[in-house]
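Schema walk-through. Below, the input block comes first and the output block second. Nothing else is stored per chain. Lengths vary across the set, and this one has 78 residues.
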Amino acid sequence: MEPFIRNDQYNFITYQTQVLINGYSTVNDLGVLQALKGLVKDKVTNLFDELSQAQQNLLDPIGNIRDSDQAEDYLIGL
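--- output ---
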C-alpha cells in the first residue's frame, strides 16, 4: 500500500491515541468512553478528503486502543 498519511496527520493521530489512553485511565463511565472513542475516530477520519476501504481499515482500529502498548502497535502498523 502506498503511503497516504502526511507527517502532520500522523502526529495528530498519535495525539488522539494519547487522548484515548488518558480517557481509559481516568474515566469509569462506559457511555463517556464510547463517546470519546467515537469522537476520536471521527476526528481521525476527517483528516482525509478521501479514503479507500483499505485505508479506512487501517485507521478504524484506533477505537480499540486502551493503553500505550496498543497505541504503539497501532502506530507502528500505520
